[in-house]
Amino acid sequence: MSTSKRIIQTLIAGTTIVGIGYAVMKLATPNPEDVYKKFSPETKRDYEANKEVIHERNVKLVDAIKKSAESDKPIWDLQALKEFSQSDKGVKSSEH
């Protein structure tokens, strides 16, 4: 078997595997609206009550990651993330 034929077969096989994986991912992953509809009323209430807090937390986390990425410190020095976790107030839940 020639080298070029083997390369073409390998590319076709790789493309097929990646394509099947992508198709399975698209079919198996629900959209956020479907997930929200399946929540229990209590979970929906908790989510709505904490939506702003969750968003603020995510923004702070992204800022901490950006600050850490721009720093000259080594990657294992997670001071920015430590500051984030110490300032994080958490999310309230209706479970007691």
TrEMBL record:
GO CC annotations, alphabetized: mitochondrial inner membrane
Source species, domain of life: Eukaryota
Membrane topology: Single-pass membrane protein
Stored InterPro entries: Cbp4 (IPR012420)
Subcellular location per the Swiss-Prot or TrEMBL entry: Membrane; Mitochondrion inner membrane
Biological role stated in the UniProt entry: Essential for the assembly of ubiquinol-cytochrome c reductase. It has a direct effect on the correct occurrence of the Rieske protein, core 4, core 5 and apocytochrome b.
Name this protein carries in UniProt: Cytochrome b mRNA-processing protein 4
